[in-house]
């Protein structure tokens, strides 16, 4: 990919981009497929309105710090960040393969080989975040995306906490309900291990075609997360089942660590050192892409929208909660001030 800034000292604005398609839409903004006019390169441009809420402002600032500071083959890369008094703009790599969610929708369930492939990459992404003092808090299939070659990257750090040192605890109630750990449901202080529980939920979803804890109400889901029996299909091998059980251990002190996860028999075929270096085997699914602006792997409920900036509400409900447990789906307005003293640009370009 060519240099983003083209060695020009002028400040970047949204006018430097041609907005092609809407790729996603959330409580405070949109993600566009955007072509930079001077280089003709295509990126994902995340445009987020600055919220009035202090908590939501903190989440957004933490997301930006994470993207500026955390670099990994399994984390979506940010190339540039600029702002207006109303919005923050993040120029991100375009992950043209779309969401893991779409693969699960199409395939219903994955093979153990495919699950092993994705879980190993996700685990390394989480391990890198944790080593960089970040707790993710929103691991789910729609936040795991595929690049052009079919390997995955974690995206959307809007609920993540930055500068969260290992051994620390926090008590903010946030995440997606079906993926919340029991300690979150009990509203007690928690640590990085909530991400390990979420990995267990996602692995179960991959193998079984749905989450382990469902219900007609949030109260029913909450009860099942805290004390419900997990049912395992007969098709699961004992090694696979052992991994899921280790991840979905309700006792935080007994829940497996990511370091120990890598030593389990289920992952015996994974060369972890090679994977950490970004050397990949052949992925289970390679996206078919006709061009650099192909959006066929994104949901048409987004791509059919006009690619214009505007305050927005969610199109697709994903059951996110924050602070008080209410679904966060309202556009609350702008602060109207600059947050940063200068633009930020990745020094890798």
TrEMBL record:
Q: What is this protein called?
A: Protein kinase domain-containing protein
Instruction: Quote the PROSITE patterns the UniProt record gives.
Output: AGC_KINASE_CTER, PROTEIN_KINASE_ATP, PROTEIN_KINASE_DOM, PROTEIN_KINASE_ST
**Which ranges carry the AGC-kinase C-terminal domain?**
268-346
A molecular function GO annotation: ATP binding
Q: Where is the Protein kinase domain?
A: 17-267
Looking up SMART domains in the UniProt record yields:
S_TK_X (SM00133), S_TKc (SM00220)
Q: Which InterPro entries match?
A: AGC-kinase_C (IPR000961), Kinase-like_dom_sf (IPR011009), Pkinase_C (IPR017892), Prot_kinase_dom (IPR000719), Protein_kinase_ATP_BS (IPR017441), Ser/Thr_kinase_AS (IPR008271)
Q: What is the lineage of its organism?
A: Eukaryota, Metazoa, Ecdysozoa, Nematoda, Chromadorea
Q: Which UniProt keywords apply?
A: ATP-binding, Kinase, Nucleotide-binding, Phosphoprotein, Serine/threonine-protein kinase, Transferase
